[in-house]
Amino acid sequence: MKKIVFLAVALAASVIGSQTFAQKTKMVGGAAMYPSKDIVDNAVNSKDHTTLVAAVKAAGLVETLKSAGPFTVFAPTNEAFDMLPAGTVETLLKPENKAMLTKILTYHVLAGKFSSADIAAKIKEGKGSAEFKTVSGGKLWAMMKGKDIVLKDENGGTAKVTIADVNQKNGVIHVIDHVVTPKS
Protein backbone atom coordinates (compact mmCIF):
# COMPACT_ATOMS: atom_id res chain seq x y z
CA MET A 1 0.00 0.00 0.00
CA LYS A 2 2.85 2.42 0.85
CA LYS A 3 4.36 1.80 -2.60
CA ILE A 4 1.07 2.67 -4.31
CA VAL A 5 0.66 5.88 -2.28
CA PHE A 6 4.29 6.83 -2.98
CA LEU A 7 3.81 6.13 -6.70
CA ALA A 8 0.61 8.21 -6.77
CA VAL A 9 2.32 11.13 -5.02
CA ALA A 10 5.34 10.89 -7.33
CA LEU A 11 3.07 10.80 -10.39
CA ALA A 12 1.06 13.79 -9.16
CA ALA A 13 4.26 15.75 -8.48
CA SER A 14 5.52 14.87 -11.95
CA VAL A 15 2.30 16.08 -13.63
CA ILE A 16 2.20 19.30 -11.60
CA GLY A 17 5.90 19.90 -12.28
CA SER A 18 5.52 19.36 -16.02
CA GLN A 19 2.46 21.65 -16.15
CA THR A 20 4.38 24.36 -14.31
CA PHE A 21 7.33 23.86 -16.65
CA ALA A 22 5.05 24.04 -19.71
CA GLN A 23 3.61 27.34 -18.49
CA LYS A 24 7.07 28.90 -18.38
CA THR A 25 7.81 28.19 -22.05
CA LYS A 26 7.12 30.83 -24.67
CA MET A 27 6.60 30.40 -28.36
CA VAL A 28 9.08 32.27 -30.56
CA GLY A 29 9.23 31.77 -34.30
CA GLY A 30 6.86 28.83 -34.10
CA ALA A 31 8.98 26.93 -31.57
CA ALA A 32 8.73 26.49 -27.82
CA MET A 33 11.57 28.13 -25.92
CA TYR A 34 12.45 26.00 -22.91
CA PRO A 35 13.85 27.55 -19.71
CA SER A 36 15.95 24.39 -19.28
CA LYS A 37 17.89 25.07 -22.51
CA ASP A 38 20.57 27.67 -23.17
CA ILE A 39 20.20 30.69 -25.44
CA VAL A 40 21.72 29.02 -28.51
CA ASP A 41 19.87 25.72 -28.14
CA ASN A 42 16.56 27.60 -28.06
CA ALA A 43 17.35 30.17 -30.75
CA VAL A 44 18.25 27.55 -33.38
CA ASN A 45 14.62 26.35 -33.28
CA SER A 46 13.05 29.75 -34.01
CA LYS A 47 12.22 30.20 -37.68
CA ASP A 48 12.19 33.98 -37.00
CA HIS A 49 15.86 34.02 -35.94
CA THR A 50 17.73 32.12 -38.66
CA THR A 51 19.72 35.22 -39.65
CA LEU A 52 20.70 35.89 -36.04
CA VAL A 53 21.78 32.27 -35.55
CA ALA A 54 23.86 32.38 -38.75
CA ALA A 55 25.48 35.62 -37.58
CA VAL A 56 26.25 34.20 -34.11
CA LYS A 57 27.92 31.20 -35.76
CA ALA A 58 29.89 33.40 -38.20
CA ALA A 59 31.10 35.59 -35.32
CA GLY A 60 32.22 32.57 -33.29
CA LEU A 61 29.91 33.45 -30.39
CA VAL A 62 28.14 30.09 -30.03
CA GLU A 63 30.27 28.84 -27.12
CA THR A 64 29.98 32.19 -25.33
CA LEU A 65 26.18 32.17 -25.54
CA LYS A 66 26.11 28.53 -24.42
CA SER A 67 28.17 29.35 -21.31
CA ALA A 68 26.73 29.92 -17.84
CA GLY A 69 26.17 33.66 -18.30
CA PRO A 70 23.76 34.99 -17.32
CA PHE A 71 23.04 37.13 -20.35
CA THR A 72 20.22 39.35 -21.54
CA VAL A 73 19.94 39.12 -25.32
CA PHE A 74 17.92 41.53 -27.42
CA ALA A 75 17.26 39.24 -30.39
CA PRO A 76 16.39 40.89 -33.72
CA THR A 77 14.10 38.90 -35.99
CA ASN A 78 14.85 38.02 -39.61
CA GLU A 79 12.52 40.88 -40.58
CA ALA A 80 14.64 43.26 -38.49
CA PHE A 81 17.79 42.19 -40.35
CA ASP A 82 15.89 42.55 -43.66
CA MET A 83 15.30 46.24 -42.84
CA LEU A 84 19.06 46.92 -43.00
CA PRO A 85 20.37 48.35 -46.28
CA ALA A 86 20.64 45.78 -49.07
CA GLY A 87 23.80 43.68 -48.82
CA THR A 88 24.57 44.60 -45.19
CA VAL A 89 23.98 41.14 -43.72
CA GLU A 90 25.88 39.39 -46.52
CA THR A 91 28.82 41.79 -46.05
CA LEU A 92 28.87 41.30 -42.27
CA LEU A 93 28.86 37.52 -42.62
CA LYS A 94 32.13 37.56 -44.61
CA PRO A 95 35.14 36.31 -42.61
CA GLU A 96 37.05 39.58 -43.12
CA ASN A 97 34.22 41.44 -41.31
CA LYS A 98 34.09 39.18 -38.25
CA ALA A 99 35.24 41.93 -35.84
CA MET A 100 32.45 44.31 -36.94
CA LEU A 101 29.87 41.51 -36.83
CA THR A 102 31.01 40.57 -33.33
CA LYS A 103 30.76 44.19 -32.19
CA ILE A 104 27.21 44.52 -33.53
CA LEU A 105 26.05 41.21 -32.05
CA THR A 106 27.58 41.84 -28.62
CA TYR A 107 25.92 45.28 -28.69
CA HIS A 108 22.66 43.31 -28.38
CA VAL A 109 23.83 41.57 -25.19
CA LEU A 110 23.94 42.70 -21.56
CA ALA A 111 25.92 40.91 -18.86
CA GLY A 112 23.37 39.73 -16.31
CA LYS A 113 19.73 38.74 -16.49
CA PHE A 114 17.30 41.64 -16.86
CA SER A 115 13.62 40.74 -17.06
CA SER A 116 11.18 43.23 -18.57
CA ALA A 117 10.12 44.10 -14.99
CA ASP A 118 13.79 44.80 -14.10
CA ILE A 119 14.16 47.03 -17.16
CA ALA A 120 10.88 48.84 -16.42
CA ALA A 121 12.00 49.43 -12.81
CA LYS A 122 15.30 50.92 -14.02
CA ILE A 123 13.37 53.16 -16.44
CA LYS A 124 11.20 54.36 -13.57
CA GLU A 125 14.29 54.98 -11.39
CA GLY A 126 15.86 56.93 -14.26
CA LYS A 127 12.71 59.04 -14.59
CA GLY A 128 11.82 57.97 -18.10
CA SER A 129 14.87 56.15 -19.41
CA ALA A 130 17.57 53.78 -18.28
CA GLU A 131 21.09 53.37 -19.60
CA PHE A 132 22.65 49.93 -20.02
CA LYS A 133 26.24 49.03 -20.88
CA THR A 134 26.40 46.32 -23.52
CA VAL A 135 28.91 43.47 -23.70
CA SER A 136 30.55 45.29 -26.64
CA GLY A 137 31.19 48.27 -24.34
CA GLY A 138 28.55 50.49 -25.92
CA LYS A 139 25.43 52.01 -24.40
CA LEU A 140 21.76 51.26 -24.99
CA TRP A 141 18.90 53.24 -23.52
CA ALA A 142 15.52 51.78 -22.61
CA MET A 143 12.28 53.71 -22.28
CA MET A 144 8.58 52.96 -22.13
CA LYS A 145 6.24 53.80 -24.99
CA GLY A 146 2.85 52.99 -23.54
CA LYS A 147 3.28 49.45 -22.24
CA ASP A 148 6.15 48.63 -24.64
CA ILE A 149 9.84 48.71 -23.86
CA VAL A 150 11.73 50.57 -26.58
CA LEU A 151 15.51 50.57 -26.96
CA LYS A 152 17.48 53.46 -28.40
CA ASP A 153 20.95 52.85 -29.78
CA GLU A 154 23.98 55.15 -29.97
CA ASN A 155 22.95 56.29 -33.46
CA GLY A 156 19.39 57.24 -32.44
CA GLY A 157 17.82 54.11 -33.94
CA THR A 158 15.06 52.40 -31.98
CA ALA A 159 13.76 48.87 -31.52
CA LYS A 160 10.63 47.70 -29.74
CA VAL A 161 10.58 44.59 -27.57
CA THR A 162 7.90 42.44 -29.22
CA ILE A 163 8.26 39.33 -27.06
CA ALA A 164 9.65 39.83 -23.56
CA ASP A 165 10.97 37.48 -20.90
CA VAL A 166 11.85 34.38 -22.89
CA ASN A 167 13.72 32.71 -20.05
CA GLN A 168 16.73 30.49 -20.70
CA LYS A 169 18.89 28.50 -18.33
CA ASN A 170 21.68 31.06 -18.87
CA GLY A 171 19.68 34.27 -19.12
CA VAL A 172 16.76 35.82 -20.91
CA ILE A 173 15.90 36.79 -24.47
CA HIS A 174 13.77 39.77 -25.48
CA VAL A 175 12.77 39.66 -29.16
CA ILE A 176 13.13 43.04 -30.90
CA ASP A 177 11.82 44.40 -34.20
CA HIS A 178 14.94 46.28 -35.39
CA VAL A 179 18.69 45.77 -35.28
CA VAL A 180 20.34 48.22 -32.87
CA THR A 181 23.81 49.46 -33.77
CA PRO A 182 26.78 50.85 -31.88
CA LYS A 183 28.17 54.28 -32.62
CA SER A 184 29.40 54.29 -36.20
UniProtKB/TrEMBL annotation:
The keyword Cell wall biogenesis/degradation does not apply. Gene3D superfamilies: FAS1 domain. InterPro entries: Adhesion/Biosynth-related, FAS1_dom_sf, FAS1_domain. Keywords: Signal. Residues 36-180 form the FAS1 domain. GO terms for cellular component: extracellular space. Residues 1-22 form the signal peptide. PANTHER family: FI19380P1, PERIOSTIN-RELATED. This is Fasciclin domain-containing protein.
